[in-house]
Amino acid sequence: MASTLADINSQIKKNEEHIAQLRAQAEELRNHERAGVIEELRQKIAEYGLTAADLKLSSRGSAAGGKRSVTASPVKAAAKYRGPAGETWSGGRGRKPRWVTEALAAGKSLSDYEIK
Asked: For the CA atoms of 28, 34, 40, 42, what is the dihedral angle to 10 degrees?
């Protein structure tokens, strides 16, 4: 058992060095295992003729270690109304465009601007 502060600090330093060595070994083993997993996946992809689309992977690059979710881009709603200057609006939720609020304030109806 350590009896002085210097002895305790010395043991802490040794333990920290040992922990750093163990972490380096763990990282090396993980990289080795990862390489094996990648090779196994490549073989399965080739064997079954899989594509990135089959796996729902983005063609824009890797998924940052598999942590980024792959989502579809939001689809813009079809325009239902056309303003006097050619601007369009889908009539969806949220704030109305300025041209709509101005038209309504002037006594116009949304049906006047419907795209048919």
From this structure: -120
Ordered by start, the domain boundaries in the chain are 1-51, 81-113
**53's tokens:** 């689309």
Q: Cβ(100)–Cβ(79) under 8 Å? A: no
3-state secondary structure of 99: helix
Question: What φ, ψ does residue 109 adopt, rounded to 5°?
Answer: -115, 150
- Residue type at position 48: Y
Full-prediction pTM beyond 0.85? no
What are the pLDDT digits (tens) for 50-72?
Answer: 888 888 887 665 545 555 566 66
